[in-house]
Design goal:
This protein is α/β, with parallel strands linked by helices. It folds into 2 domains: 55 residues, no CATH class; 100 residues, Trna Endonuclease, Chain: A, domain 1 (3-Layer(aba) Sandwich). Helices cover 38% and strands 16% of the residues. The longest helix has 14 residues. Keywords: Chloroplast, Plastid. It is found in: Plastid, Chloroplast. It holds the Pfam family Tic22.
């Protein structure tokens, strides 16, 4: 049975593609799919129904950053996708909070928010206080009802490339 891999970055996918083309399938391609579809396929317990096994492959650079920020290595095993956040950040003053797939995006948005505040607004100050969770943890808390899905905003790298 074949295994499909969903990479979080095109760069990682294209690197793996070179290896796959050289050793397994010279006709292999990289194709973009929406995150919700990738998640559904990767979490499928019956691979025969979807034509094979699927798994998520996190960006290894982000995994290293997550560990450097204090995330236990054990929480990032098995393809867990790290997400970065700062509890002080909210979207437009709402209760919704952003979760970033890349630490660099969190850091950039945080820095921009520091400089866009006016004197009458409550401002956050100091360096970013990055914390790490995983995509798997967020989905589990939403499914269990602990977290309202409307209050979670996943910000992919594509959000910042437009």
């Amino acid at each position: 049975m074949s295994t499909g891999v969903f990479f979080m970055t095109r760069r990682d996918a294209e690197k793996a593609l070179l290896e796959v083309r050289g050793s397994v399938d010279p006709k292999a391609i990289v194709q973009s799919v929406p995150l919700d579809q990738a998640w559904t396929l990767a979490m499928t317990k019956t691979p025969a129904e979807v034509g094979g096994k699927f798994r998520l492959q996190p960006d290894q650079h982000q995994v290293k950053l997550a560990v450097a920020l204090g995330a236990p290595k054990s929480s990032l095993k098995g393809g867990a996708v790290p997400l970065f956040f700062d509890r002080r950040m909210a979207i437009n003053g709402e209760e919704a909070f952003p979760l970033f797939f890349r630490f660099e995006d969190l850091d950039r948005v945080y820095a921009l928010s520091l400089y866009s505040k006016t004197f009458d607004q409550v401002s956050i100050s100091g360096p970013v206080q990055a914390q790490v969770t995983t995509l798997e943890n967020i989905v589990a808390t939403i499914k269990s009802g602990e977290q309202n899905s409307e209050k979670v905003v996943l910000l992919t790298p594509e959000t910042f490339n437009q």
